[in-house]
Amino acid sequence: MTQEVIFQTLGTLSGQSIGVVTLNIEKALNALTLNMVAAMQNQLTRWKNDDSIACVVIKGAGDKAFCAGGDVRAIYHASIANPNNITDEACEFFTQEYQLDYLLHQFGKPVLVWGDGIVMGGGLGLMAGGSHRIVTERSRIAMPEVTIGLYPDVGGSYFLNRMPGKTGLFLGLTAYNMNASDALYVNLGNYYLTSDEKQPLFDAMAELAWSQDNDTNHQLLSDLLSGMTQPHLASLTTSHLQQFQSQIDLLMAGDILDVHHQLSTLDTELDWLKRAQKTALAGSPISWHLIFSQAALGSALSLAECFKWELGVSVNCCSMGDFCEGVRALLIDKDRNPQWLFTDVEAVESSKIAQLVTSPWAADKHPLADFL
User: Fold this and answer.
1) Which residue from 238, 282, 310, 325 has the highest number of Cβ atoms inside 10 Å of its Cβ?
2) Which residues form the Enoyl-CoA hydratase/isomerase domain (predicted)?
3) Is 322 a catalytic residue?
């Protein structure tokens, strides 16, 4: 039985150690199972409190993906067996996943994420929590939840709403695949290395003068990565998101019906925008409304408040939204022909969205009540 996630510690010349997490289900593009999430939560908590660990690295096995998202099949099967009920499986998976993501955001010590290859959904939740987020020429980063009747969770309510202009809304509705330049532009990545620089990076990290001071360690790693990134900056292609920011803002302007009309009538020669348009228009009409509700949260909520909001919406999606049908069409039967609950965005009943965004728990009974 192969370990789904591998934990190692690397010694350094300073005497301090580096904790290394490797997501290890290469054939499933390192998609997160509940067991992996629980194991990481336990190990990372130990490393956070271990003075001998100066820094943590999270990477994926193989060269195709860092992490393609969460393995949601168990939630699907539980939800199908218990229609219109919030299942223990959905509660447990999303609760533990968000606890892990929140731990990374609040870790204190430097957390380096090697975001090479595919980084989607739950993988992006891990990456967004890292302090040092590396993208490469192979990075393909997206939040594709609109295709399965969900919405960009795992902290998306926090980081999408802090992106330039209407970029966050565009990424949520279209599942647009970002490359390294795009990720740097919207601050999902903050350093760029080529994929063959992974080992030289780890070798250099072993020689840093790590201490037990988090601020010093952050600066050491930042200086190393800035130095390694600098030679590549001139050769990076321009980000589509940056180059077409004003057009994206116009396309995403107005209310949900305005945006749906603008996307429906868009006539473009740009292949990347055509793909984005097609994905958005095929997506769940409920997801559209949830993504607009998420965008309406703005940037006033704290990270903890965002995760609390998301947990309620996510478990509700599994019991009374389009999630099960989306997962069936994409992952179970793979017919790619979802029969959404509503035929189009305009047909979605406001009472259904109100239900979905209402937390199933009282504030003091919320599974994430201890988030500060």
Assistant:
1) 310
2) 18-356
3) no
